[in-house]
Specification:
Distance between the termini: 70 Å
Strand order of the largest sheet: 1-2-3
Number of helices: 18
Number of strands: 3
Helix content: 55-70%
Strand content: 5-15%
Order of helices and strands: HHEEEHHHHHHHHHHHHHHHH
Structural class: mainly alpha
Number of domains: 2
Largest sheet: 3 strands, antiparallel
């Protein structure tokens, strides 16, 4: 009987990554995690690679990033998964600072990698309680922008509290996080219906949409259209499908909540009572404070973030009144984009500090929900028209931002 010879497995010492390549892949993943669009991310990493003396190709999607480098005649490709968390302006500003310092050789790539990892591990700038409060303020403010009365504003704020609390709980449990949109939609529908027993007749649909505004993927839709416009087809398509999935999840949750609400007290629907115009101005001044917290912006960035939100609101009202919704949105986006690019030149900071809050009140998230709700109500024509309008407004925003880049060309990628 012959004995089998043992199989010898030859092992080699793992290759040590070039610190510059490791820094590029870690930075790309971090920027993707905090919502930087594909074209901005790829341009920023490409510029940094050139300054570090590396020939590199970058490819990013909402959930992954590839960095291919050529060092000493050898080409290697690194892949990193991305877990998108949404915009975090304080971390984007900090990452941008590290990227600039490494690119100008004042910090070594190895040290830069350690610094950015510390930033990624850093807890959010604001605690859960402030995030819940911010969600309530944002919902109440948006409710006023949509024409809500006192009752609708109060109920929308309470729904915002519930949605913010669900988001805080879900952030600690991976499986619960995947059901956040569905659960939030169901809770919003039930609360909006039951609240009529206490608050009296309210516009239930308006209240639900305003209460859920923090979860509406309007910014994701706009970012997706920007990526498609800049020929980042894979990333744009993936992000757009992801946004549609969020809308479907919210809509299905609302449908489930409405079915449950039929067996509960309440449910009396009525048009909202129109409030004086000065209340809309007040809401426009308060809403940016909520954005400051929801975007985890630094308090000192509030000196530019808050005026940007008010400027966007005032100019959009004037522009849409004079030119219509689509062209008014395009003109407002152009003004916001120019302001962001000029700020980036002046302060050497990411333009997103101005652009994100400036665009938030114009993004078509609520329209996408109205479209899905029309389909649920068997209003195919109304749903199709609303869906088409979502795309038109998103394209108008993107065209405005592209015009801004022509009028005031940005000197930096972020």
């Amino acid at each position: 009987m012959s004995r089998k010879r043992p199989i010898l497995i030859q092992t080699a010492e793992p290759r040590r990554d070039d610190p510059r390549a490791r820094f590029l892949i870690e930075m790309a993943r971090a920027l993707g995690t905090y919502g930087v669009a594909a074209h901005r991310l790829e341009d920023a990493i490409q510029d940094a690679a050139a300054l570090l003396g590396i020939r590199a190709q970058i490819f990013s999607t909402p959930t992954s990033v590839f960095v291919s480098t050529e060092l000493k005649g050898k080409r290697e490709t690194m892949l990193s998964r991305v877990d998108p968390h949404g915009p975090d302006l304080s971390k984007i500003v900090a990452l941008d600072e590290i990227l600039r310092r490494v690119a100008d050789h004042s910090v070594t790539p190895a040290r830069g990698t350690r610094m950015l990892k510390r930033i990624v591990r850093r807890p959010p700038a604001y605690g859960p309680s402030l995030h819940i409060l911010a969600a309530a303020i944002a919902s109440a403010g948006v409710c006023r922008f949509f024409g809500g009365g006192v009752r609708e504003i109060i109920v929308a704020g309470l729904i915002g509290v519930a949605v913010g609390f669900l988001g805080t709980v879900a952030s600690k449990q991976r499986h619960a996080a995947r059901l956040l949109e569905f659960l939030a939609g169901a809770v919003a529908a039930v609360l909006a219906s039951v609240a009529t027993t206490v608050a009296g007749p309210i516009s239930i649909e308006l209240t639900m949409i305003a209460g859920l505004i923090a979860l509406m993927p309007g910014m994701s839709i706009t970012t997706a259209m920007a990526e498609l416009a800049t020929r980042n087809l894979v990333s744009g398509t993936a992000r757009f499908v992801g946004a549609v999935t969020v809308v479907l999840s919210i809509g299905f949750g609302v449908a489930a909540g409405q079915a449950l609400a039929l067996h509960l007290p309440g449910g009396q629907d009525a048009p909202a009572v129109v409030l004086p115009e000065w209340t809309e101005v007040l809401a426009a001044c308060l809403a940016p404070f909520a954005f400051l917290i929801l975007f985890n912006a630094r308090p000192r960035d509030g000196l530019v973030l808050l005026p940007a939100g008010v400027l966007s609101f005032v100019f959009s009202r004037m522009a849409t009144g004079a030119m219509g919704t689509e062209f008014g949105v395009c003109a407002t986006a152009a003004v916001v984009g120019i302001a962001g690019n000029l700020y980036a030149r002046w302060r050497n900071r990411p333009a997103q500090v101005i652009i994100l809050p400036g665009l938030l009140m114009m993004v078509p998230g609520s329209l996408s929900f109205r479209s899905f709700e029309s389909f649920l109500s068997n209003d195919t024509v109304g749903g199709t028209q609303a869906a088409f309008r979502v795309l038109v407004i998103a394209v108008a925003l993107v065209v405005g931002l592209l015009l801004a880049n022509v009028a005031a060309a940005p000197r930096r990628s972020l």
